[in-house]
């Protein structure tokens, strides 16, 4: 089997040259990582709703120089919870045409790439807000059923568009937000309504979840979502953060650690716990390099690795991953 240990946001400089791709891959390989996750990086200076701007990410020109497995995000929609969401009319011919166009552009070119693992859809889509603005009270059975019809149409159209051009790769679906951080109608919730997961499971292969917390905090949620959906889980985006000269972290934040050595040890501890769970097939770290928006990565602002951290990551990745993960 294959357990995915990956790193996200490799496009932190918007450098699309073969030399930069090789720079990224050589570092990841030397640290024992085996996957390139979602490649786009935040280019905003602050994480403020409506102001988060991502780089264009890697495409075919970059992937041909990649010597690691990767997952590509197909941008069918713009409905991330941290932007000014644009929810599509999934019953319109325009949505069908948009999905077909995106799939045709990318999947037809990538369908025979043995390094491609599969496709993500939207990053942390705001399903709770979509239900709210369409007048669906998810506490009411009839509203849930009607909203499920909308969600089912969304997933089926995307599924069919991809399958039209590529039947060879996995569908990792939406990258759901697992933390209780999404504000909707005066409450704070996560991005995984049960009624959406119930129809999602019919058309995707893997449940992809972003969840910033220690593993013990998320373990019960992950177990529930696995049992409910019947899908293996990819931890698609999380990390531990240490203070730097440009990044100030509050000690009360759960993913805070005091320094880079503690960060590497936190990685080992989390990875041991995660990969001991039979439903976890991968974990992708956030993020690779320093950007103006993120101010946190495995490289500092001068592109030098935080050796105290990455050496400990390498120890787990190269010596423990499959010992822990195949028990």
Describe the structure.
The protein has one domain: Alpha-Beta Barrel (TIM Barrel). By secondary structure, it is α/β, with parallel strands linked by helices. Strands 2-1-10-9-8-5-4-3 form an eight-stranded parallel sheet. It has a two-stranded antiparallel ribbon with strand order 6-7. The chain has ten helices and ten strands. The longest helix is centred in the middle third of the chain and has 25 residues, at 141-165. Mean pLDDT is 92; it is low at 42-46. Strand 1 (4-7), helix 1 and strand 2 (35-36) form a beta-alpha-beta unit. Helix 5 (141-165) runs parallel beside helix 6. InterPro entries: GH (IPR017853). It comes from marine metagenome.
**Main sheet, how many strands, which sense, barrel?**
8 strands, parallel
Name the CATH architecture.
Answer: Alpha-Beta Barrel
Structural class: alpha/beta
Helix segment count? 10
Proportion of helical residues? 25-40%
Query: How many distinct domains?
Result: 1
CATH homologous superfamily title? Glycosidases
Straight-line N-to-C gap = 12 Å
Coarse shape: globular
Mean pLDDT: 92
Proportion of strand residues? 5-15%
Tell me the CATH topology: TIM Barrel
Protein name: Agarase
InterPro entries: GH
């Amino acid at each position: 089997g294959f357990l995915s240990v990956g790193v996200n946001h490799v496009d932190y400089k918007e450098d699309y040259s073969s030399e930069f791709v090789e720079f990224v891959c050589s570092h990841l390989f030397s640290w024992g990582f085996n996957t390139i996750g979602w490649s786009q990086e935040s280019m905003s200076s602050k994480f403020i709703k409506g102001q988060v701007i991502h780089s264009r990410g890697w495409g075919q020109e970059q992937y041909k120089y990649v010597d690691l497995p990767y997952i590509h995000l197909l941008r069918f929609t713009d409905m991330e919870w941290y932007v000014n969401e644009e929810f599509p009319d999934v019953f319109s011919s325009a949505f069908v045409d948009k999905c077909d166009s995106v799939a045709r552009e990318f999947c037809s070119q990538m369908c025979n790439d043995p390094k491609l693992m599969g496709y993500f859809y939207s990053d942390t889509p705001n399903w709770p807000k979509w239900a709210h603005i369409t007048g669906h009270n998810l506490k009411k059975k009839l509203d849930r059923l009607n909203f499920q019809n909308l969600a089912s149409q969304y997933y089926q159209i995307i599924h069919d568009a991809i399958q039209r051009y590529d039947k060879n790769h996995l569908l990792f679906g939406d990258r759901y937000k697992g933390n209780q951080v999404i504000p909707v109608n005066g409450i704070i919730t996560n991005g995984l309504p049960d009624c959406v997961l119930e129809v999602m499971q019919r058309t995707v292969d893997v449940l992809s979840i972003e969840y910033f917390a220690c593993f013990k905090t998320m373990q019960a949620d992950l177990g529930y979502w696995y049992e409910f959906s019947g899908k293996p889980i990819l931890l698609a985006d999380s990390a531990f953060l240490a203070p730097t000269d440009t990044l100030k972290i509050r000690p009360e934040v759960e993913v805070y650690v005091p320094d880079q050595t503690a960060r590497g040890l936190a990685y080992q501890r989390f990875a041991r716990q995660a990969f001991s769970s039979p439903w976890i097939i991968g974990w992708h770290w956030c993020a690779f390099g320093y950007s103006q928006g993120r101010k946190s990565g495995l490289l500092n602002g001068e592109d030098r690795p935080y050796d105290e951290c990455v050496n400990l990551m390498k120890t787990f990745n190269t010596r423990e991953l499959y010992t822990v993960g195949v028990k």
